[in-house]
Amino acid sequence: MDALTDAELTILGLLVEHPRHGYELEHVIEERGVRNWTALGFSSIYYVLDRLAKRGLIEAVGPRAAAKSRVPFQATDTGREQCAAATREALAAPSPVRARVLVAMANSPALPDAEVAAGLAERRTALAERLAELRAIRAAQEPLPAAARGIFDYSEAMLTAEIAWADTTLTTYEQETAMDKYDVKKARKDLYAPSAKDFALVEVPELRYLAVDGHGDPNAGAAYGDAVEALYSTAYALKFASKADGRDFTVGPLEGLWRSADLAAFVERRKKDWDWTMIISLPEWITDDQVRAAVAKAAEKKDNPALEKLRVLTLNEGPSVQILHHGSYDDEGPTLDRLHNAYMPEHGLTFNGDHHEVYLSDPRRTEPAKLKTVLRQPVRPV
């Protein structure tokens, strides 16, 4: 026989006590504050009664009333047995935590910290109101039998614990919001938010990066994926360690330096001929010793061969031409062709470093047509 849902077990238990009709069940559920610990709306009471009756766990008693809501039901012998068995199981077996807020917390990195804090503050207020309501319902029914006291004690404990969790988590987010968090995209908008309309000449200062080198098509083999994973695991280990020391920062976007003996390989997208260095920017206060410690921390969690290749790269690109590209990476060819064979010759410029790309979008969550990528080329006068 199928297991009883929480709603079914609740209604069946109330009918084991003594026969009741729908309105009586609603009154008892409201009076006892049952909705503080189980999802059971008024309209669903009759749905649950129908399900229990079809399973032979309850039956109508007495003369048939004109209104369905006035039909009394009682538990059958089978229903009493099922209720007792389900109750024993529910008492002994701890239930997994499936609160929807856990899903929200898992998704919260996609929101600004201020929005997460606002949502938690709203939740904290709602929890406090629910706790006050529960205590009022309890006070109106005192003195309570042992079973009812246990229900109210558990419900109060859960709400109190949730309020404490909300307070602690809210404090963390408020502190993060108040903390001066460094974000390279905001600090250097000239480098990370270029126009998509035309090429622009910018001066790129000396910057430091986490870097891993590789060769060939990034879509073929495991080397590229290992490199990206090593960069992010190290970058986040650095972030958490730095934050603990009082200086927080937003992990920068993934970037790539691309080179080939034949520059036409980029325009023609001959990826097997590419050499690459994948990079993530470092705040200026991060030291080499901190990077080594972060690499060791990342290695403790997962054995990644690319961690051994990770290094700190100091890059001084100087004058560079850049543009924001919208669309698939494979559609960059025409833009690069214009840069290499039109814009640079017309402005008396030639190559002075690797082709540099900044990936502002996550390709795992963004349609190819909506990807945003900064295309940058260091240059010097001919």
From TrEMBL:
Q: Which InterPro entries match?
A: GyrI-like, Reg_factor_effector_dom_sf, Tscrpt_reg_PadR_N, WH-like_DNA-bd_sf, WH_DNA-bd_sf
All residue ranges annotated as the Transcription regulator PadR N-terminal domain in the record: 11-84
Residues annotated as domain GyrI-like small molecule binding = 200-379
The family database entries (Pfam families) matched by this protein are listed as: GyrI-like (PF06445), PadR (PF03551)
Enumerate the Gene3D superfamilies for this protein: Regulatory factor, effector binding domain, Winged helix-like DNA-binding domain superfamily/Winged helix DNA-binding domain
What protein name does the entry list?
GyrI-like domain-containing protein
